[in-house]
């Protein structure tokens, strides 16, 4: 048994068992009930000042750290928000994660970041686990089907990014609106045969971009064909470049910058010049897109802002009495950024 000596500082000593201290250890040290310790730490004003000071001093002595799950049980809140991304190594998510982190920190929440590995199974199991350890979740580019995602959103507060499902609040990065811009840019350079290098088969963003591009191509009388699907990684660029060369097109609009950068590398290996022999347009304007050889023409979006908006929408669900509106949909604008990877047709 530890003794508390009045008027002298208590020596900090580790628990003899090596386990984390609990409120029962503090109660034993102070000679009070565990319920009194709980009240002193959670609602100090409900305990007289002398008892409160003894308990607080004992908590410091024992290096007591509140258990987040126990706190959640008593308050119904964990102070944490889950952020799920399909691939943490994809630079597209760097700015998104930064945006959510900064906005959550400002609101007093901890961010729980999870890489779901492009797997619907990992995503589903993670969402189930987070029901106990997080107050809400932000899910980027979900790989779940609409029914599974809507069911998950019915069980806990959720905001999706780049996934549009009825009844689920979402932040949509409006890349489809930039597809006609990219096509008009290529047409102005003399391109009449263009390929869309598509992303994952389950990607709603890829499907929306293809729909917007094919509709714009039909209006303009331009031949556009779809290649893929391809995994959203640089390594996919080699196969995508080979498919583009085989198709006979002179320009490609690519699902994301990672695949586009891989295509630049492969085309160079094959002795083809960009943009003289093939023009390439990427999407996302990730860090490094302007450092490529040649610098990549791409579709740019305020990705960090999208993360901040997603957090604001989630906080409105978590704290409805705090105001902030009740948006169910927020659309982030996108525009074409022209660099050196696109140019006039010089060979046939």
TrEMBL record:
<feature type="compositionally biased region" description="Polar residues">
    <location>
        <begin position="339"/>
        <end position="348"/>
    </location>
</feature>
<dbReference type="InterPro" id="IPR028082">
    <property type="entry name" value="Peripla_BP_I"/>
</dbReference>
<dbReference type="GO" id="GO:0000976">
    <property type="term" value="F:transcription cis-regulatory region binding"/>
</dbReference>
<keyword id="KW-0805">Transcription regulation</keyword>
<keyword id="KW-0804">Transcription</keyword>
<dbReference type="Pfam" id="PF13377">
    <property type="entry name" value="Peripla_BP_3"/>
</dbReference>
<feature type="domain" description="HTH lacI-type">
    <location>
        <begin position="21"/>
        <end position="75"/>
    </location>
</feature>
<keyword id="KW-0238">DNA-binding</keyword>
<dbReference type="InterPro" id="IPR000843">
    <property type="entry name" value="HTH_LacI"/>
</dbReference>
<feature type="region of interest" description="Disordered">
    <location>
        <begin position="326"/>
        <end position="348"/>
    </location>
</feature>
<protein>
    <submittedName>
        <fullName>LacI family transcriptional regulator</fullName>
    </submittedName>
</protein>
<dbReference type="GO" id="GO:0003700">
    <property type="term" value="F:DNA-binding transcription factor activity"/>
</dbReference>
<dbReference type="Pfam" id="PF00356">
    <property type="entry name" value="LacI"/>
</dbReference>
<dbReference type="InterPro" id="IPR046335">
    <property type="entry name" value="LacI/GalR-like_sensor"/>
</dbReference>
<dbReference type="InterPro" id="IPR010982">
    <property type="entry name" value="Lambda_DNA-bd_dom_sf"/>
</dbReference>
């Amino acid at each position: 048994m530890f003794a508390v000596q009045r008027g002298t500082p208590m020596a900090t000593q580790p628990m003899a068992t090596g386990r984390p201290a609990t409120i029962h250890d503090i109660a034993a040290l102070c000679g009070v009930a565990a319920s009194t310790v709980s009240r002193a730490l959670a609602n100090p004003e409900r305990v007289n000042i002398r008892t409160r000071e003894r308990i607080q001093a004992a908590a410091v002595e024992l290096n007591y750290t509140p258990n987040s799950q126990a706190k959640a049980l008593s308050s119904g809140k964990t102070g944490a928000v889950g952020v799920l991304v399909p691939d943490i190594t994809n630079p597209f998510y760097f700015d998104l994660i930064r945006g959510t982190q900064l906005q959550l920190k400002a609101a007093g929440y901890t961010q729980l970041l999870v890489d779901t590995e492009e797997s619907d199974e990992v995503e589903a199991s993670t969402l189930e686990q987070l029901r106990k350890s997080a107050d809400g979740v932000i899910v980027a580019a979900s790989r779940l089907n609409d029914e599974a995602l809507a069911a998950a959103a019915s069980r806990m507060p959720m905001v999706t990014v780049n996934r549009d499902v009825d009844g689920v609040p979402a932040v949509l990065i409006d890349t489809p609106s930039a597809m006609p811009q990219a096509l008009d840019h290529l047409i102005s350079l003399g391109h009449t045969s263009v390929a869309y290098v598509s992303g994952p088969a389950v990607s709603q963003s890829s499907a929306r971009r293809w729909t917007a591009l094919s509709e714009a191509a039909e209006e303009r009388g331009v031949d556009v064909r779809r290649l893929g699907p391809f995994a959203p990684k640089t390594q996919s660029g080699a196969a995508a470049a080979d498919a583009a060369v085989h198709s006979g097109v002179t320009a490609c609009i690519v699902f994301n910058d990672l695949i586009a950068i891989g295509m630049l590398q492969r085309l160079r290996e094959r002795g083809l010049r960009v943009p003289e022999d093939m023009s390439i347009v990427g999407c996302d304007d990730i860090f490094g897109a302007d450092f490529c050889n040649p610098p990549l023409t791409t579709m740019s979006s305020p990705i960090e802002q999208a993360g901040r908006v997603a957090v604001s929408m989630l906080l409105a669900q978590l704290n409805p009495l705090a105001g902030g509106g009740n948006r169910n949909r927020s659309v982030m604008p996108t525009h074409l950024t022209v660099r050196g990877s696109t140019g006039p047709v010089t060979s046939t």
